[in-house]
Amino acid sequence: xxxxxxxxxxxxxxxxxxxGGVFYVYSTGGGLQLHRSTNxxxxxxxxxxxxxxxxxxxxxxxxxxxxxxxxxxxxxGSFHLYYAASTFGSGRSAIGMATNPTLDPAxxxxxxxxxxxxxxxxxxxDFNAIDPNIVFDEIGVPWLVFGxxxxxxxxxxxxxxxxxxxxxx
Length: 169
Hints:
Layout: E1 5-6, E2 12-19, E3 22-28, E4 32-37, E5 42-48, H1 55-60, E6 67-75, E7 78-85, E8 93-100, E9 113-121, E10 133-136, E11 142-147, E12 154-158
């Protein structure tokens, strides 16, 4: 087991990506937290990726105070960060997405662009739009996998590889 140093406490729902010899971990807690390391043992906090809960999520999800369960993927020339917006135990949930051409905060091109709502659920729906994860099929098409710890289960939606949003035929 590796001994970790630096900012390693309170890292919940982590998702990791590597770029340019640096590892970046995105996590739940006080927004979407970002930590980085060059060796997977010594970690520095970079801060909150989006600077808090976006306005669209505050409007869509009354009472929201945090974002959850980020997932990071690279496709169509950008990093795509998917995240959940909800209140605990609520079926009123949404998944949002932000993109960035680079993960390095020191890069002049570093800027997260929040694209807002990807998919949402209401309490009456038979699914809960939380805990996003991106998977790619055998021909490279991205799919959004999401779901809940409750009895509504897991769902999948095909994404448009050019936009990262749900595919419209």
